[in-house]
Design brief:
Layout lengths: L7 E9 L2 H7 L6 E10 L5 E10 L15
Antiparallel strand pairs: 1-2, 2-3
């Protein structure tokens, strides 16, 4: 079958952990966490899924492989 891809917005950044995040991640309040926000869109552009994930900055590395289609 033919593969299809959905448009995706991805934002990665650092932020200080608030009280709840620090407690859940075993950090001190204010320590850096890595924030990843992602929105998946339908083929017509409507947003379908939105999520935000927080990672301990001292235990996570985000690696991205970029590909481009050559015609």
């Amino acid at each position: 079958g033919q593969k299809s891809t959905l448009p995706t917005d991805l934002a990665i950044g650092a932020m200080p952990a608030g009280p709840e995040e620090a407690s859940l991640l075993g950090l001190q309040e204010g320590e850096a966490v890595l924030r990843v926000r992602r929105v998946l869109h339908a083929s017509d552009g409507r947003p379908l899924v939105w999520f935000r994930t927080l990672y301990r900055a001292d235990r996570y590395e985000y690696e991205i492989e970029l590909r481009r289609q050559v015609k």
